[in-house]
Amino acid sequence: FERLKQGLQKTKDGLVGRIDTLVLGKKEIDADTLEELEEILITSDMGVKTTLELVRTLEQRLKRNDLKDGAALRAALKEEILQRLELHHAQLNPSTRHPFVILVIGVNGVGKTTTIGKLASRFTSEGKKVLLAAADTFRAAAAEQLVAWGERAGVDVIRHKEGADPSAVVFDACKAALARNVDILIVDTAGRLHTKVNLMEEMKKIRRVIDREIPGAPHETLLVVDAATGQNAISQARLFKEAAGVSGIALTKLDGTAKGGIVVAVSHEFALPVRYIGVGESIEDLRDFDPREFTDALFL
Ligand code: GDP
Q1: Which three-class secondary structure state does DSSP give residue 291?
Q2: Probe ligand 1: pick from 107, 112, 114, 240, max atoms within 8 Å of CB?
Q3: Looking at the predicted complex, does its ipTM rise above 0.85?
Q4: 118 close to ligand 1 (CB < 6 Angstrom)
Q5: How far is CA 155 from the centre of its chain?
Q6: Whole-angstrom distance, CA of residue 91 vs CA of residue 231
Q7: Where does GTP bind (predicted)?
Q8: 234 C-alpha to center of ligand 1: Å?
Q9: Binding site membership for GTP: which residues?
Q10: Over the stretch 288-300, which tens digit does the pLDDT of each residue have?
């Protein structure tokens, strides 16, 4: 928990620090206070839609005389944020299928490979047999990096030559996962965003191959976004959700940004569960997302 708090320090200072300056010692809450709060939430990347909804709810509570002072407003905000995070929350449980297939998507540089490497290490240490597929065949460096993570975690990586058909890699990886009795197959894909149509076609093809080899798979399509990119993360979530069908989100690099409100925005605007958050570079810094722990780390 202390590590999480540390990782979220910038958001704590930026978001909650400013809220504290606004509300602490206030004996009475009025419309102006809520307007200032709205400004703080928006600039912390809580998202326009989520912010307006939060402020509207707080206005109603104010009318009901539910917000007597600054402390009450602070507590109410935390409660409303927690409620929204819990609404969509679901942890990923790879024990439900065998093999469990995770398709990982997202643009380059967001921390996709690192996240896959960390997940591979973690699942392995939990006693699971993991296999990785390097279906990002457009950058040789991507496969190299995945292999490096694989070596560290003691996990095999299925890869082809640079420029190979990603679907061929996926096909081989599915065959290998079945033949080797693997528990979890994690597929890394290319983060190219030429056009939405392109992306859709590529994803469709990869999905078709996976589903043909392992019926019902992929069981999770995990979108990785970089929290520090703020509104870009939101537009990526929108695009990938429409084009590739996302079932869960991993938000990386929260340690590097004061705009951690993005966690709430991404989850709430797209009705998607946040599965993991990254609050640092080491393996332990990729954490299962827990709404209560997250809001406690920010507000306590
Ligand atoms: P990819 O291109 O999406 O595969 O991105 P990489 O996995 O190569 O990651 C890009 C950089 O982000 C690397 O230097 C990672 O160490 C770094 N990174 C990934 N996740 C986190 C995180 O949660 N916190 C911090 N501080 N850095 C991260």
Answers
A1: helix
A2: 114
A3: yes
A4: no
A5: 23
A6: 25
A7: 106-113, 188-192, 252-255
A8: 18
A9: 106-113, 188-192, 252-255
A10: 999 999 999 999 9
Closest residue by Cα to atom 2, ligand 1, is 109
| CA 297/CA 137 separation, integer angstroms | 39
Q: Which two tokens stand for residue 253?
A: 């690099």
Cα–Cα distance for residue pair 231/224, rounded to 1 Å = 14
Tokens of 127: 């006693």
d(CA 274, CA 87) in angstroms, rounded, equals 11
34 pLDDT band (50/70/90 cuts)?
very high
Which residue is closest in CA terms to ligand 1's atom 26? 280
N-terminal to C-terminal alpha carbon distance within the chain: 11
Report the run of H or E that residue 215 belongs to, with start and end.
Answer: none
184 forms beta bridges with 100, 130
The CA R_g of the chain, rounded to the nearest whole Å, is: 21
Span 126-179, pLDDT tens digits: 999 999 999 999 888 889 999 999 999 999 999 999 999 999 999 999 999 999
Strands in 4-145 per DSSP E: 100-105, 130-135
Q: For residues 259 and 284, is the Cβ–Cβ distance under 8 A? A: no
pLDDT tens digits, residue range 194-204? 677 888 888 88
Given phi > 0 = left and psi -120 to 50 = alpha, else beta, which region is 106?
A: left
Q: How many angstroms does the Cα of residue 53 sit away from the middle of ligand 1?
A: 32
Cβ–ligand 1 contact at 117 (below 6 Å)? no
Is the beta carbon of 256 within 6 A of some atom in ligand 1? yes
Position in ligand 1 atom list of the atom nearest CA 188: 4
